[in-house]
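ligand=nicotinamide-adenine-dinucleotide
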Amino acid sequence: MTVTDQTSRPGTPAFDGGFLVSSSPATGEEVGRVPVSDADGVRDAVEKARPAAAWWAALGYAGRRTRLLQWRATITQRLDEITDLMHRENGKPTDDAMLELLITVHHIDWAAKKAAKVLGPRRVASGMLASNIAATLEYAPLGVVGVIGPWNYPVFTPMGSIAYALAAGNAVVFKPSEYTPLVGKWLVDTFAEVVPEHPVLTGVYGGGETGAALTSAGVDKIAFTGSTATAKKIMAAAAATLTPVLIECGGKDPLVVDADADLDAAADAAVWGGLSNGGQTCIGTERVYVHEAVYEPFLAKLTKAAESITPGEAVDAHYGPATMPSQLDVIRRHVDDALARGGKAVVGGSESVSGPFVEPVILTDVPEDAAAVQEETFGPTLTVSKVKDMDEAVERANGTPYGLGAAVFSKRRGVELARRIRSGMTSVNSVLSFAGVASLPFGGVGDSGFGRIHGEDGLREFTRPKAIARQRFGLPMAIYSFTRTDKTNALLVRTMKSLYGRRR
Ligand code: NAD
């Protein structure tokens, strides 16, 4: 088979003789190739993962913790190797890759160390009506979890599911994005070095068909991270087998600046939140709403900061190329439409979206119903809008179908405003900071998805609660029995009225 696909756009994955060929989005140079997994291969991987899951679960929390901490150490020790590969395959600067790895190993560490306490058996109160019952709650692994990942944070993002699913006692079959299969394979290979006995973490490689095959291969849960459009296809396919799904999709995150905000900090955060990683961040800032009292000084600071940011191929550039070349069309459409509808480009413009690198674009006066305000752009662009007060800021922040992350800059009202924003996570006086707090759950509402990775909720996401009610002694009267008497019924009615009959 010859190479199929549009190799004219650097970084577009190609399929060649049963191999997925991965290339640099900056130069188009081949980075490496992996064999494509077809539907039989995916089913085989899931079948082999089943006994591996049983073995891994039987290792117990302590045994799994030891292996996961070894993996965390292996990744850390080979930091240069993986950051170099991420730079070549995804295009991001090596320092950004390092930052991604730092929060990733922090999450592996947290999940490995907390799983026993969060998921292990614990006694819960049995209540007045069941005082003869010892009630125990524990969280059992699901079995084999299928993880389908995107390319923008090719280590951090899938690891939010992989590390937590493994710590909870599951085996994982991982389908990395076709744009970053080699980074995915590196993770699978390093895990096999510390867990050589069984295929507890397996990689399957390919495009959407491989992901679709994994969805219907009999896994016990699918953890998907990617676009809302793909999520809908996955949910439809998973419905056929009642396979549960965790859905982590895109966002259109707002950043809100109050009149009393530290404007230097807010401008610095907006630039980082909007432009870092070339804007290819699910929780990246895409919209900024600024109180009219500070709009002009804020915009001046933001513009100055954004003008100093430049993308490039160098390992120390501010950010790299568009990893997925087809996204350039989306970014260009959003910018052109915003300008055609009366928006102004105060930094960059249509010409900034040449590819493979996109220069920063800051837009003002864009109508609220424009694509640049409503749809995920996933590029280094920001829309900035003036609002008369924070009520208007919150209303407009909540005015898209998405609800993933958000940021609020305010000295007095930060937490109050954070609560009012419809999102899974909101940072106050910082941006993206929740992603590095391992104990906080991460996930969205609306078109951003449902279910949670990270934190205690992220561990429980990959388990089923198991409730055990053990009778410690028999009661003098039968209740849950056909031998229950009228006298007992009368006693139960009196008890019910005395316990629950009062209005307060
Ligand atoms: P995508 O939806 O195109 O692809 C994601 C994965 O799904 C890939 O591995 C792909 O091969 C696979 N896939 C495609 N079709 C499939 C099908 N029919 N069945 C099963 N799998 C299929 O998304 P992408 O472009 O790789 O990623 C970017 C998106 O991911 C953005 O929207 C971004 O916001 C989102 N994202 C979300 C989070 C989060 O945690 N919420 C994190 C990172 C990225």
